[in-house]
Amino acid sequence: MGENLSTRVAYGRALKEFGDDPKVYVFDADLKSCTMTSYFAETYKERFFNMGIAEANMVDVAAGFATCGATAFVHTFAMFACGRVYDQIRNAVAYPGLNVKIVGSHAGLTVGEDGATHQCIEDISLMRTMPKMTVIVPCDAYEAHLATEAMIKRQGPCYLRTGRGAVECVTDGFKDYHFEIGKGMELTDGSDVTIIACGLMVQEALKAEKQLAAEGIHARVIDMHTIKPIDKELILKAAKETGAIVTAEEHNVIGGLGSAVAEVLVSSEPVPMEFVGVEDTFGHSGSPKELLEKYGLTPEHIVECCKKAIGRKK
Q: What is the pLDDT of residues 222-253, one digit of tens each?
């Protein structure tokens, strides 16, 4: 699984692999070549439904299937999966606690040239504030594969965030790596500061860790693939042992991973904390690399925030 693929492609392949479960039904809003449900559709035609550009109807139909025992997966771009059908997800899926999995593709700034209207930087916030919803943000192909299997086995509503572009596969290289919903993974140890990241920012955090090490600063890196339920125990342990936290996410700094981590810390282990993410503004059209640099989602900015957090220690 160590290929440098997009998480959406890895997800699509995994859905086909685990789709032999006869309870799995897949619904798509006319985007199967983008969301990568095409893999499932070609293999299990009788359990795939192209619902057209009718996202609200798609969610309600999936909810209906779930009431009859199906594990229902719905797919569209993250902007529509969370924004356009928020009330259907809330009232038809989350409120009754149905076994429907929402998969939002093309999330974050790295949709690139499609611009602000398609760059969903609010989805983590929207989904994690919804009662009963599990929120997962895999960082690479290997993690997306494991997350797909875990979602199928997990009862209840889930939101999975996937990205458009290929990303470096990093998690398969860690000897003790394992995936469990609700449990983050410590990828590197460190005593000076902890970087907690999700999605493609995990790769940027690992690059930042190397830059910091070259300067004699030892950073711990945590891959927080599950935003809800978040791994409180791991966060508090890191805060106690390193005394400073930096979060990194391809999302608005309001309401996402950083906010979730801060909520944990402020209740029992407040330490200096810095946030790397989109600073409460909309995106622009541009290449993914240009956009990550423009909005400060780089190893260099993570390094800067780590030094700032360390400097604030008492």
A: 999 999 999 999 999 999 999 999 999 999 99
Same domain, 94 and 203: no
| Residue 55 a catalytic site member | yes
> Would 1 be classed as within a structural domain?
no
Q: Determine, yes or no, domain membership for 173.
A: no
If asked whether residues 248 and 294 sit together in one domain, one would say yes
Closest CA to 261 of 243, 277, 273: 273
How buried is residue 240: exposed, middle or buried, by Cβ count under 10 Å (0-12/13-18/19+)?
A: exposed
* Mean per-residue pLDDT of the chain: 97
Residues 225 and 84 in one domain: no
Of 200, 205, 193, 265, the closest CA to residue 230 belongs to 265
Give this prediction's pTM.
0.96
HSE-up of 123 (CA within 13 Å, CB side)? Answer: 36
Q: Single out the residue of 262, 247, 259 nearest to residue 302, CA to CA.
A: 247
User: Which is the catalytic residue, given 42, 46, 55, 249?
Assistant: 55
Task: Tell the burial category of 176 from Cβ atoms under 10 Å away from its Cβ (0-12, 13-18, 19+).
Answer: exposed
Within 10 A of 149 (CB to CB), how many other CB atoms are there?
14
